[in-house]
Design a protein that fits this description.
Neuraminidase; binds MU-OXO-diiron; six-stranded mixed β-sheet; nine-stranded antiparallel β-sheet
Length: about 650
């Protein structure tokens, strides 16, 4: 979701609540931290020598940039594309020599008898069979299963949330507008959430999708799914519609996600709190638990007026069935998605995997809220590469850990296991199910490090190092800074690098309970924004703000998408790429620029590195922009057609590898 507009313009009010009351530190710690902030930025004792060298280089960056003497696209980067300038326009833009192809748009027919898109006559039945709204996470799964090709596959696409005012005529901006949505429109919105699976092909250099392919699928806010793992069947998950606490309807606010080595996909539920309303948020038996997740008396959406299960007063346990990771098999359109409770319940940005040296699979996860935490889930057993079915329920058994970033450069991973440490009945946790349903409270008690809104957390396959996108935290005070979050009023975010034991070898221990960390970059405009730090050769267009999603190319270079570049200053979101090692480390360069109002999500390379898929989310979501008068009509630019969140493919005109 964007995070820069006035609160009543977008569905943000609830996301904006920093609901972690914890930030606990002693005065001594605060003083020590403030004194050592400079040292933290300069490379953290035990971090690799390369990091220290880079940080020394970084230290020289600001004066050069402030004087504007650094040319565009200069410096020792291994990336060969010509950087594009910052800017803001109704159309998007990409580096010279590359081409943007629209693959699929909101409303395009996906399954069955789906009608073609008619924005003036949208119906629930049409939307249930059409591509959903606000695409986010993307995954490309080659076809057939087991292949590693790059011209034919399944595109798996999350649909995070809906912009009522851009979807329907006569709504208008803000919450008041959303409360104007009718019962039919509310159901259209529910059905525009979830996931799409579409078969895609590249033929004669052009990508397109296959309507009505036998693989195509819509998963929505109404799709029946299973709840599994330690919390399944717990009383807190039981409702009138599901007295077993093991089956639920739909998945909501699917932000980012991940995949597994056995070819399934994980779609992650983020700001699930926004859909529920009721006085119980203030007065009910679960009010305190609701508060920790930002569930409020007045939700962002008004769905509880028409869809009973979103009414907290009638169905107080319904929100407990959201906030999970959901695994499903994209190769089987009839597979039942499964909410994997062992991976914890919070506002999941995503869940990206790395295989540890012993074959156990580790899923790195961010909880996207101001002052919330970084997690990882480690499977109890190694995965089985020879028997896909043997991995079917691997995600039901394992250990969830939360990160504590120490000032000496160590990161400690603390297990969320019932009976260990403070996670006992005396503190209100009767069993592991309750630890998982109230993951945030359990992590509070373990004194995890409150972070600046963790978004994607992803391991670089080339080095084993892990990168944490921290998008921003404008509410951190000078008294609350710590070395991993060293900036007060952090409106631009930063990137933290975690170095697990064995990183750089072929035996990376992603399951280890300790590692090291360093600051990779501090976002913002060098020379203007306090604390912004990159490679000294970063150009005046190479800086970025609010890192959100990321991906690695085959050479281990980091591609970052943003959600919150300073639009008021005429700077749009986009994609920036950088080396993570060597002379070009932290030298970010702008590759793609989104249309006005949009954020860029889901960067995803095909296995051959020749296509980069991007999800362009909420185009035209600018202040005052409505269905009737949108700030852009991207990508159709047809009168009467509103902007349409879409997946695009970027290819090189000469057919070569992206960035090479
Ligand atoms: Fe949905 Fe954390 O962005
Ligand atoms: Ca988003
Ligand atoms: Ca975001
Ligand atoms: Ca995101």
């Amino acid at each position: 979701m964007p995070d820069t507009l006035p609160p009543d313009q977008t569905p943000l009010e609830i996301e904006d609540i920093g609901s972690n009351p914890v930030p606990r530190e002693t005065i001594g710690e605060i003083v020590e931290r403030r004194l050592s902030r400079r040292a933290a930025l300069l490379g953290l004792g035990g971090a690799a020598a390369a990091a220290t060298l880079t940080d020394q280089l970084l230290a020289a960056a600001e004066p050069a940039l402030a004087q504007g003497v650094v040319p565009m696209a200069g410096g020792p980067s291994t990336l060969t594309f010509q950087e594009i300038p910052h800017g803001m326009a109704q159309r998007d833009a990409v580096a010279p020599g590359y081409e943007i192809q629209t693959v699929i748009r909101w409303g395009d027919p996906v399954i069955g008898e789906a009608p073609s898109f008619d924005p003036a006559a949208q119906t629930p039945a049409a939307q249930a069979a059409q591509f959903g709204y606000n695409c986010d996470f993307l995954d490309f799964r080659p076809l057939p299963l087991g292949a590693n090709g790059s011209d034919h596959g399944l595109l798996v696409v999350n649909h995070e949330y809906t912009d009522t005012q851009l979807m329907f005529a006569g709504i208008g901006a803000g919450r008041a507008g959303r409360m104007r949505a009718t019962a039919d429109q509310s159901r259209i919105e529910l059905l525009a959430h979830g996931v799409s699976v579409v078969e895609v092909r590249r033929q004669d250099g052009r990508w397109s999708y296959v309507p009505n392919s036998r693989y195509n699928r819509r998963i929505t806010g109404e799709t029946e799914m299973r709840i599994s793992g330690p919390a399944a069947g717990h009383d807190l998950l039981k409702t009138a519609g599901d007295p077993t606490g093991t089956r639920c309807l739909g998945t909501l606010n699917n932000c980012a996600g991940g995949n597994t080595p056995w070819g399934t996909v994980i779609t992650s539920e983020e700001n699930f709190n926004q859909y529920f309303s009721g006085a119980a948020a203030q007065t009910g038996a679960q009010a305190e638990a609701y508060r920790r997740y930002g569930i409020a008396q007045q939700g962002t959406y008004g769905w509880s007026r028409f869809i009973e299960r979103f009414d907290l007063d009638r169905h107080p346990n319904e929100p407990n069935r959201f906030g999970w990771n959901v695994e499903f098999d994209p190769y089987d359109p009839n597979s039942v998605p499964v909410k994997r409770t062992a991976m914890g319940r919070f506002k999941h940005e995503g869940a990206t995997h790395a295989i540890s040296h012993d074959g156990r699979v580790v899923f790195y996860q961010g909880d996207d809220e101001r002052f919330d935490y970084v997690y990882k889930f480690v499977t109890a057993r190694p995965w089985n590469p020879n028997d896909r079915a043997a991995n079917r329920d691997l995600l039901d058994e394992g250990t969830l850990f939360v990160a504590r970033f120490h000032d000496d450069g160590r990161v400690e991973w603390l297990p969320l296991v019932h009976g260990q440490g403070p996670l006992t009945a005396a503190n209100g946790f009767a069993n592991q199910a309750e630890v998982l349903i109230n993951t945030r409270r359990a992590a509070d008690l373990l004194q995890a490090t409150p972070m600046d809104r963790p978004e994607d957390v992803e391991a670089n396959p080339a080095t084993g190092r892990v990168y944490v996108m921290l998008t921003n935290n404008d509410r951190r005070t000078a008294q609350q800074v710590n070395r991993a979050n060293p900036r007060a009023a952090n409106t631009h975010g930063h990137v933290v690098e975690i170095i697990p034991p064995g990183a750089g070898t072929d035996r990376v221990d992603h399951a280890a309970t300790e590692g090291r960390w360093a600051i990779f970059l501090m976002a913002g405009k060098p020379g203007t924004d306090v604390g912004a730090r990159y490679h000294r050769a970063t150009s005046e267009h190479g800086w970025l703000s609010c890192p959100d999603n990321c991906a690695f190319d085959s050479k281990g270079r980091l591609w970052i998408s943003t959600d919150g570049m300073p639009s008021a200053a005429g700077v749009a979101d986009g994609i920036w790429a950088t080396d993570t090692q060597g002379a070009g480390r932290a030298l970010t360069r702008q590759f793609y620029r989104a249309p006005t109002g949009a954020e860029v999500c889901g960067p995803c390379f095909t296995p051959d590195g020749r296509t980069l898929f991007l999800a362009i989310q909420h185009p035209g979501d600018d202040a005052g922009s409505t269905f009737e008068r949108p700030s852009t009509r991207w990508p159709d630019f047809a009168e009467g057609v509103p902007p349409r969140p879409s997946v695009i493919a970027i290819v090189k005109r000469d057919g070569g590898e992206i960035g090479s």
